[in-house]
């Protein structure tokens, strides 16, 4: 059975790998979006968990969820079996403080932003829950006040939708090069 605690542990343990943290530090220092990098790193990280569940990891499947943990309909694993559990869609968002506005980064109309992913998670078919995860980055020092509005708004949006927080913690990053520091914070929520 898949639990929120297990999913939270997988999200946290992704960053136990020093090479991933170094790569993230370099990406942060250059103030670039990297959602696809995170998507494929997390998808490969989740393969062992999926195998334990007798499931597979699907990328960009089931109504274009970033990642889905699900059982297959056939031995070749070409289609998700909608009748079996688990079926956990995972939506990922990355945002850097270089956006300058948390409101624009999370709620801009006409764009697929964080609020869109949260709202979609609440209505998407899932079993036992859906996950929405956010990685906020900043090319600067840890605990820089520039991170605060991004973290606070994300938490508020999740609370308004009655989503359950399962991860809310900083990711320890080293300097990507002398004098180039960066920080990251990972948040994840599940549907009730």
Class inferred from helices and paired strands: alpha+beta
SSE run: HHHHEEEHHEHEE
Low-confidence stretches: none
- Content of β-strand: 15-25%
The spatial strand order of the largest sheet comes to 1-2-3-4-6-5
Largest sheet: 6 strands, mixed
Description of the molecule:
The protein is an alpha+beta fold and 192 residues long. It has one domain (4-190). Helix content is 35%, strand content 24%. The chain contains seven helices and six strands, in the order ααααβββααβαββ. A hairpin with a 3-residue loop joins strand 1 (56-61) and strand 2. It is globular.
What's the short version?
This protein is an alpha+beta fold. The protein has helices at 4-13, 18-29, 35-45, 47-52, 102-107, 114-123, 148-160, and strands spanning 56-61, 65-70, 87-96, 131-138, 164-171, 183-190. The protein has one domain.
Provide the fold topology:
Elements: H1 4-13, H2 18-29, H3 35-45, H4 47-52, E1 56-61, E2 65-70, E3 87-96, H5 102-107, H6 114-123, E4 131-138, H7 148-160, E5 164-171, E6 183-190
Parallel strand pairs: 3-4
Antiparallel strand pairs: 1-2, 2-3, 4-6, 5-6
Question: What would the keywords be for this entry?
Answer:
single chain; 192 residues; alpha+beta; six-stranded mixed β-sheet; 7 helices; 6 strands
């Amino acid at each position: 059975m898949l639990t929120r605690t297990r999913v939270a542990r997988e999200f946290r343990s992704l960053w136990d790998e020093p090479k991933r943290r170094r790569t993230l530090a370099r990406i942060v220092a250059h103030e670039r979006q990297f959602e696809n990098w995170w998507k494929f790193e997390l998808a490969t990280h989740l393969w062992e968990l999926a195998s334990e569940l007798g499931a597979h990891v699907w990328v960009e499947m089931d109504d274009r969820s970033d990642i889905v943990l699900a059982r297959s309909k056939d031995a070749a694993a070409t289609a998700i079996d909608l009748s079996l559990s688990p079926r956990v869609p995972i939506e990922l968002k990355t945002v850097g403080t270089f956006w300058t506005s948390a409101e624009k980064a999370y709620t801009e109309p006409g764009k697929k932003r964080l609020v869109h992913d949260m709202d979609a998670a609440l209505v998407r078919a899932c079993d036992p829950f859906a996950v929405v995860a956010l990685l906020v980055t900043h090319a600067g020092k840890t605990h820089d006040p520039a991170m605060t509005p991004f973290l606070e708004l994300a938490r508020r949006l999740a609370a308004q939708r009655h989503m359950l927080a399962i991860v809310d913690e900083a990711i320890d990053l080293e300097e990507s090069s002398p004098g180039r520091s960066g920080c990251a914070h990972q948040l994840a929520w599940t549907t009730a």
